[in-house]
Amino acid sequence: APAAAAPAPAPAPVPPAPAPVAAKPAPAPEKPAPTPTATYQLPAAPAAKAPTAPPPTATYQLDAPPAPRPPAPAPQARPAAPAQKPQAPKPAPAVKHAPAAPKPAPAPAARPGAAPAAGAQTAPAEKPALKSLKVTTLITVRELAEKMEVKVNDLIKKLMGLGVFVTINQRLDSETAVLVASDFGYDLEVTPLHMEAELQGKIAAEKDKPENLKPRPPVVTIMGHVDHGKTSLLDAIRQANVAAGESGGITQHIGAYKVATPKGDIVFLDTPGHEAFTAMRARGAKVTDIVVLVVSAADGVMPQTVEAIDHAKAAGVPILVAVNKIDLPTAQPQKIRQELSSHGLLSEEWGGKHIFVDLSAKKKLNIDKLLDMLLLQAEVLELKADPLRPAVGTVIEAQMDKKRGTVATVLIQSGVVKVGDPFILGLASGRVKALVTDRGDRLQEAGPSTPVEILGINGPVPQAGDAFSVVASESMAKDIAGKRERIHREEALAHRKHVTLLGLKNRKIKELPIILKADVQGSVEALKDSLEKLSTPEISVRVLHAGLGNANESDIVLAEASDAIVLLFHVDSDTRATEMAEKQGVEVRRYEIIYDLAADVKAALEGLLEPEIVDVSVGRVEIRQVFSIRGGKIAGCFVSEGKAVRGADVKIYRAGALLGAAKLETLKRFKDDAKEVEKGMECGVALAGFKDWNAGDTLEVIVKEKRVRRLQPAA
Length: 715
Known about the structure:
The chain is α+β, with helices and mostly antiparallel strands. Helix content is 34%, strand content 28%.
């Protein structure tokens, strides 16, 4: 076959026709063939020829190595080689497939080599799985710490690191709780209250009818740094709203109030800083429409100012800046605009979209301009609500009044609430007995964007951010509130820790209840006897239940109710029982050797024993000379044995007979106070509680030590 292929290159007219045919196979085989060709061409062709030949010539030079031996015909072999294709197409692919076959072999070999390398890089990057934990939206800092089994101080410290300052009984918003729980290794799932999702879903399903929508007043929250004039601005707005004939002004401060202007009403929320604002966001309630950021023109941007900006941005509401105290000589309103621009608040004068109003709450300058700008912003927002829907609102604040009972200030967000309507409010329920405005006036009904005090609440005092919903009947409201209260109580008790062998010492209990399960009756009796013999007058071991077979659900229920430990000998626990034990926090221990079981219980009981306090003699001191000083006398002594310890008890001996006991009050080495003086040294001593001692007496120094008590084996 190679000999026949050699004379073929002679005819010249053939190349033009097969040129397109040669172009088709050439690119495909040329790429896999360069490696084998280089090995064959090295001994035959010069080095200069090798770089030009590999792409096209390599595949065809393999077919007839003896023919192109001379160096001159090498350039002619290039056009002649494609001509060989039409004459012998069959052998050519056979040769091409031959070198191509070994080529794919190394390729897959390289791929698996890369695969493990990639796998080796990704393996260490995997993080340990987080423990799942489920809580409700009413979770407080204390409850979350107890559920995660961490110290409350550590949790508060972690929250402070995140910029959240809370108290131990304060509620956490869902986002913050999930974030801080992940730092402690927990995957937190926040579940809504009973029927809360259903009520919200029902409200969301009831679409607002366009023909029923009516404009509503904007809800404005005033925020800012301490002592920047928030309270003064609120007072100035309220006084501007009070009629000239009224001397009392606002008769009742309920945390939210309405201001009537010639162009419309505005609802202001009087919040202490931004704590209540955050608490309202904790339940996902978008209460505020506009935030007024009060900044002192004299003090500038302060830390709480930045926090207020962050809270307002997180709520997604427009911010209107009130630059207060412009009447002071040190006021610099333009500097305030410059500082706020670095926080994303650019004034309209500088080409931004935020409204800035320079005012003075003390001098009552530009208060009307601020109100006009608020109404202008409200018109842009096109705030509307449907007054014909069931009323929905949010608690602003609540308190327990001595005369009126539980009272909550609620901002109605949609619908109309009337006197006599049944409602659900967090964990409480009731029927509306009265609706009171911020001026003390009583209303028969309250529409959207109306803050009112609601009387007639049965149950615990609500907290800021709790949802207010009007329901169909009072019985339905009681049923929902009762179920919520029961679930909340169960959640509060769920994190109560049960007794464990390792935690006995911290519990300070005087009785250890045990549930015992074994494989045979003989083992049960032997274990029961050995455990009960460990009882002492101080601590008793009580076997509540001893039986055969695996631990079941009833055993776990009994252990949970009686705060007992479940001990298993040569048996296991059922799947349902294991899950219940993990959920309820009941300790279940399995043993294969009877001595291990008894030893663990004995060690746990020894930890409950009060330590034994014993007197240990640590040294003897000889009184060499007695010196009288003002108010008493001191002794010059020599430590003959052991050491003298300041504050230790001493026994005074004279001629081997015990005279009395005292306390080593003062111990000096030369002029310096000493805590201890070792053997062979002299010291000065003053005793308290005994005066009749002379030179030649011997003092025995005694120190009290605590020793761990051991359970004595039963006789």
